[in-house]
TrEMBL record:
Example of a GO MF term: methyltransferase activity
CDD domains registered for this protein in UniProt: AdoMet_MTases
GO terms of biological process kind: methylation
Family annotation (InterPro entries): SAM-dependent_MTases_sf (IPR029063)
Keywords: Methyltransferase, Transferase
Protein name in the entry: Class I SAM-dependent methyltransferase
Cross-referenced Pfam families: Methyltransf_23
């Protein structure tokens, strides 16, 4: 969604958010900039998935799987059947390339585009929403609609594992700008919800506008509850930014060693396990 001079159109409603996120992630994956920025899974998040049922799961849905940073190691290290879904066609195309000649390719199914496609495709004992997928989905109503869809796809004994960006660690300038727009009456549509931020970043030399909803632990708990889940485990996702710990093995190990000292609410991201109620 671009206009003259390469400046992104300001995005405001849920439909525009979905369009903008699809465009920007298509470009992020096609240019391989995502892979360069986050070349590996966060090892402690991968361990978290195993500690919370990935090994025992028979059917796993990775919702917002991107290029398969988590789906691929799960395919390799478990016997589960995987379903990988992303709104970005380029994400799924890249994952599909990684799967060419993969010994376990028959155990994974790929979907892109509309999330409704998942509704007639079975249910899951683990559903993942890793590294901010939920935050990109739109305002409160859009996020609750997605969580309720996933509530409908999870088995009674299943686990939802997710990670979201933390409001106390991310983007203070944009949070203040959003706050100021609200108090001065300039906020429109999705800009009216506290925690929603917009910012511009260049992807492959082109300006793109990102949308995020930033979370506190209390905010995450309340949303999950509204959609029919209750939290059973919480942890910080990392102390340092994700790009640092996935680009450097040393920083990744150091970060994982320090995580037990950090409360979930002060992580760069917040990881949670939730079960259906
Ligand atoms: C920060 S990336 C995380 C990707 C992957 N889970 C990982 O950990 O590398 C966010 C992902 O959410 C996807 N996404 C954004 N909006 C979405 C939506 N409405 N439904 C599904 N996926 C969406 C993007 O295409 C992108 O792949």
């Amino acid at each position: 969604m671009l206009v003259k001079e390469n400046l992104p159109v300001p995005i405001r409603d849920n439909h525009q958010i979905t369009e903008a996120m699809t465009d920007l992630y298509d470009r992020y994956y096609t240019s391989h900039e995502y892979e360069k920025r986050y070349p590996k899974p966060n090892q402690s998040t991968l361990h978290f998935l195993f500690e919370n049922g990935a090994k025992e799961a028979r059917d796993i849905l990775d919702f917002g799987c991107g290029n398969g940073r988590y789906a691929l190691p799960l395919l390799q290290q478990t016997d589960a059947r995987l379903t990988a879904y992303d709104i970005s066609h380029a994400a799924i195309a890249e994952l599909s390339r990684f799967l060419q000649d993969h010994p376990h390719a028959a155990r994974i199914r790929l979907f892109d585009g509309e999330a409704e496609k998942l509704n007639a495709q079975g249910d899951y004992d683990m559903i993942m929403l890793m590294f901010g997928v939920l935050s990109h989905i739109g305002d409160h109503s859009a996020r609750i609609a997605t969580l309720r869809q996933l509530r409908g796809l999870i088995r009674p004994e299943g686990k939802l594992v997710l990670s979201v960006p933390c409001i106390f660690r991310r983007r203070p300038f944009e949070l203040f700008t959003a706050y100021w727009q609200r108090v001065t009456g300039k906020a429109r549509d999705t800009q009216k919800e506290p925690g929603n931020i917009f910012f511009t970043r260049n992807i492959d030399k082109q300006a793109h506008q990102f949308f995020y909803h930033l979370y506190s632990v209390a905010g995450l708990r309340a949303e999950l509850q509204e959609a029919g889940f209750t939290i059973t485990a919480l942890a910080p996702e990392s102390l340092l930014p994700e790009w640092m710990i996935t680009q450097s093995d040393l920083l990744g190990k150091l970060d994982e060693a320090l995580l037990p000292l950090l409360p979930a609410t002060l992580g760069y991201g917040i990881r949670a396990v939730a079960v259906p109620v």
